[in-house]
Every structure is written in C-alpha cells, then in structure tokens.
Amino acid sequence: MIKIPLTLIIVGTMLFSGLTYAEPVSTLIQSVTNAKRVKVAHAKYPTSAARKGQEGWVKLSFVIDQTGHVIDPVVEDSSGVSSFEKSAIKAIKKWEYAPALMDGKPIEQSKNAVILSFVLDKESGEKGRVTSKFMGKYKSINRKLEAKDYEAAKRSIDKLSDNKLWNLTENDWFWLISSRYYRETKNQRKELHSLEKSSYGKSTSLGKDNYAYVLSRKFALQLKQQRYSSALSTYAEIQKTEDKKLIDLYAPYAYKIRQLITEDTPIVRDAQINKRGQFIYSLVRNQMSITDIQGQVDELEIRCDNKRSKFTVVEDSIWSIPVSWGKCTAFVKGDTSTTFKLVELKNKV
Length: 349
What we know:
alpha+beta; 16 strands; disordered N terminus
C-alpha cells in the first residue's frame, strides 16, 4: 500500500486584464427534455487484445442529433489501447436515442459522455485481480522510487506502459505508481493526468486508503490548475465515499469554488493540445476567450446540453454562450503540443 500524506494546495485566482464585456440581456427560459437511450450496440472485443489478456476502458463524448442518432464521437481519454478506442467508436455510432426535445420539438443534445469498459473476466475483475507478474514489476518500481533512483523508475514505468498487458485493476495500480513518480519529480500536470486515469476503475481496486489519497490529491491539483468543474466532480466522488472526515475537510474548498465561479475575476487555464490533437475543458461560465497561443489552433467547438457551434480561432476573441444552451464543454483542436490560455470571463446574464 502506498502511504502518502494527504495535502491540499490552495491557490488564488489569476488575474487577466484588458477585456471588455457586453451589456446583459434578458433570456427566454425554455422547456427541455433530455434524450433517452433506446438501443445499445455492444463493443466488439478486439481479438488482438483478447489474445494478450488486455483489458481497458474508453471515455467518449458524442452528439445525439435531431433523429436520435449518435454523430461526431470523440475519444476524450482511454487506458491507452488503440484497438479498444476503435471498437468503442464503432459501437457508439450504432446507439440510438429518442431525441431531446425543446418546447416539444426535436433538438441536438450535444454534451454526452460515456465510459465503455473492456473486461475479459467480470468475476475476477470484481475481486480486484492483480497478477503476480504485474505485482513484481510494481514492487520493483516502488523500490526504485524509495531509493530515489528516478531514471531507473521511469525506464521501468515506460516499459510497463509500452506493453499495456494489464487488466482493469492493474490499470488503476499502474497509474497510481505513475502518479507517485510524477509527484516526486514535481511534474504536477502529468501527476494529475495519472491520478485521473487511476480513478476511472472501481474504487475498490486500490483499497480505501489509496482511493482516498487519489481523490484528495486529484482535488488539490484540479483546484491548483483552476479546473473548477473537474474539482467539483471530484468532490462529488469524495461525498460518495461517505467518509465524513474527508467530506468535511474539503467542503469549505468546494464552497469556495462555487463562489469563485459566480465572481467577476477571470479564470485562466494554461492549456496544451494533446497527442490526439485536441484539448477538452468543461466550462463553468458562459463567456470565454483564447489568448497567448504558441503554435497552431485550428478550431473551437463548443458542445452544450442543447446546442453546439464550431468556430475558427482568432486570438483574443470573446465567445458568449446563451444561457439556454445549458452546461458546455470546449473542444479545441490544433497542432500537438500547441499551448495557449483559455480564459473564462464573468458570466453573461
């Protein structure tokens, strides 16, 4: 078991000046009925992955059009096996829904997400199976970290990652040890990425103490990186643990996040296009801008509960999202490793 003290990183709100705001206007409140799933097509287990004993997961975002069909699926994240991603995309396109309705008329429902799991042995997966071969490699990496031999630890982590011959439980443990490496080498961006991957599986996979650590550290880093929507989602996970001490510890910070969202001070997020050529961010306000672009940004797509739009990106432009669109996620596409700042401005009423 990995025992690391729980810590919370508290940060102030970054300032961003020189922006102007439009005058508020009244908004018509409309009645919306969400889409309802009526047909599911199960993803085919890739033969190559089954032969290797690989298990994994894929998180997808997609749009439900006015006829109830799934369009424009996007892989947000996965356990890293490309054949699972391809199979998940193929399956989700066959799902069907009774379309969403606005005032009784069919509309697109643009903000949808699902995690598809690929499991060979459901019974053993529920018991938290870890093979002796994997555990031996895990313990070896752990010893190297304890000895502060970070170069050797990273080589072992990379070698284990290249093969990806793990089941869902081992996936959680791999990303946990990876997060420890990045914490000790002070790379908080990659540490958070690893923590988020380690908590996609069942909470029982890591054990109560390790799971509490993952949630606590994840919340702290999401708060530091001003990923407020993600931090609130993590706090909701903390509440599900029914650990009153843990819940009470982080309740004041969750309250403060909700306060920050309603204030006028801009929220600034350092962003980077990933290897899939995209950056995905859940918005907490309805006005945003993209600035300080280092590289090439090609497109901004805003997917909301009730509508979506695509834009070319002109630096320092301001996008205002109608309140009637609901909660939104920004999908920014461009060249890999491009960096920029995504700025959320005060809410437009």
